[in-house]
Amino acid sequence: MCEPEQPYSIEQAALTLGDHLSAVGVTSTVLVGTSIGAKIATEFAANHPQFVRGVVLVGLPANSSPDDLIKRLRSLRFVPKKLLPIPAGYDKDGFKGILTAAHNYEAETTLPGLTMPTAVLYGVKDDARSESIEQIVGELEESRFVTVPGGHFLASDNPSALAQEIRAMIEETGL
After folding, report:
1. How many CB atoms lie within 10 A of CB 35?
2. Nearest by Cα to 85 from 166, 153, 154
3. What is the pTM of this model?
4. Percentages of the chain per state (helix, strand, coil), in multiples of 5
5. Which long-range contacts (CB under 8 A, 24 or more apart) does 72-75 make?
6. Tens of pLDDT along 44-83?
């Protein structure tokens, strides 16, 4: 397995997303990001508002303590590699780098800079749910905080609620 040339970062992932969108000719979009992808979507939307008409952030992880990161990384020892959402080009150690980068990215700092309609969606059983993010979203114009039945992985736990929120955002933005 080849190793990526640089350590993983949310900022670099957002730049890569922008490169991909430009390469395929996208000039206006509604971004949907889940978990770490929600952090990438937040970063991209904050720095490229001219391309983003709306954002749906699903299970956006809040900042957590260093102890939480250590527990997550240690728990990976017991999870078979085939059950982890490891991106192409990464191995299990590389995946630990992704988790570390996501842990170190402070969405609470970037989120207030979003100027487009924003929906933050959590399952009621999602451990990532955050009062601080709920408060920030409550202070943003054109934003909403939504909870639905399910856990952290709403694409599998409650796909109809997720689809409904995405449709609502597309209609709201007129895209």
Report:
1. 20
2. 153
3. 0.85
4. 50, 15, 35
5. 72/99, 72/103, 73/99, 73/100
6. 999 999 999 999 999 888 776 667 667 776 776 777 767 6
CA dihedral 125, 128, 129, 133 (to 10 degrees): -170
Residues with Cβ within 8 Å of residue 120, at least 6 apart in sequence: 57, 60, 133, 134, 137, 143, 144, 145, 146
29 - beta bridge partners?
A: 52
Look at the alpha carbons of 33, 150, 107, 86 in this order and tell me if their dihedral is positive or negative. negative
Residue appearing with tokens 């102890």: 67
Q: Which helix (H) or strand (E) holds 119?
A: strand 118-123
Angle (CA) 76-106-146 rounded to 5° is: 85
**What is the Cα–Cα distance from 130 to 111, expressed in whole angstroms?**
13
